[in-house]
Write a structure and sequence with these properties.
Layout (H helix, E strand, L loop, with lengths): L1 E3 L6 E3 L5 E8 L3 E9 L4 E10 L2 H8 L4 H20 L5 E5 L1 H5 L3 H12 L4 E2 L2 H10 L11 E6 L4 E6 L6 E5 L3 H8 L7 H14 L10 E5 L1 H7 L5 H4 L4 H13 L2 H8 L3 H4 L2 H15 L3 E4 L4 H12 L7 H11 L2
Parallel strand pairs: 3-6, 6-7, 8-11, 11-12
Antiparallel strand pairs: 1-2, 3-4, 4-5, 8-9, 9-10
Helix pairs in contact: 2-4, 5-14, 5-15, 6-13, 7-13
Length: 331
Amino acid sequence: MVKRGARGGGQIAAATRAGVFAVADIGSNSIHLLVAVSDGVRQETILDESLPSELGRLVERHGEIGSRAAREVGAVIRGFADRAQRLGAMQLSVVATEPLRRASDRKEALRAIADASGQTPSVLSHEEEGLLTVLGLLHGHDHSRRLIVADIGGGSTEVVLLHPDQDPRTFGVSIGSARLLARIDYADPPRPRDWHELRRAAQVALVDIPRQPRGRLVLVGGIATRLLKLVPSTMLTREILREDLAAMGEQLARNPAKEIAEQHGISPRRARLLPAGIAIIEALLHQTGADELVVDHGGIREGLIIASARRGSSWRGQLTELVGESRLAGA
């Protein structure tokens, strides 16, 4: 069992016999469950589902999650664990991202989740989240050139810079699609002044990301994959040209979220976040100087499947090594 890179020259052997692994990801907008079979190199999805979450909104407005919401999250995780077990997973790995990083009542919320579910989530740092995202990329990428991997979430954006022969550099920015919507509270559809405010806020948030001229910007996450639906041809290539991005923005400027949702098979709740996502993507392109933009359908959960298969419960201390192995295979 091997995984071949974008150029076909590298490979890494499977770390273990194939098994069924399950991960749950507690985020700002949703709580995800992924169950997959993996040998530590390859993976195939058995189940991928999510439920909406208001954790990002709660933390943005009140600074905390609260006991009621935490118990509700625990009930969701308990249901996920039962589902994963029925599908053959030996255990469920649970991680949490931006809302649990920021919540003033994090300890209390984690305790309430554990009491309700029997699972204590691991709260990921920005660096861990970024490295798991790189590890979870599903499509071949040329690691002989500069890569900028960006995961646009609801509450934060993780950016990982990958240069040949250098260790990854990770940046965590506390701006995401839902958080930007809460901050700007733009109209539906956004007015010209709303677009100006969105773009300005995104550019200010990303100002510390170093320039990466002639780099390839690789987007992961729901915002990126949903935007592809607005220009269907991009779903085949996974490449977004400047004119594609402009066409996406024009649709979002003309049509309210309900119409976007009906026309493109997106939930209205998700469609409402797309203008903020466009603004963050534009800011990433401007700030980094990348000259190519592609979307990868992998991400943090796929990375956690690989990490769990290769390193078991000790994956947290070995992410840089795991990413290094993966990059060598893709060289």
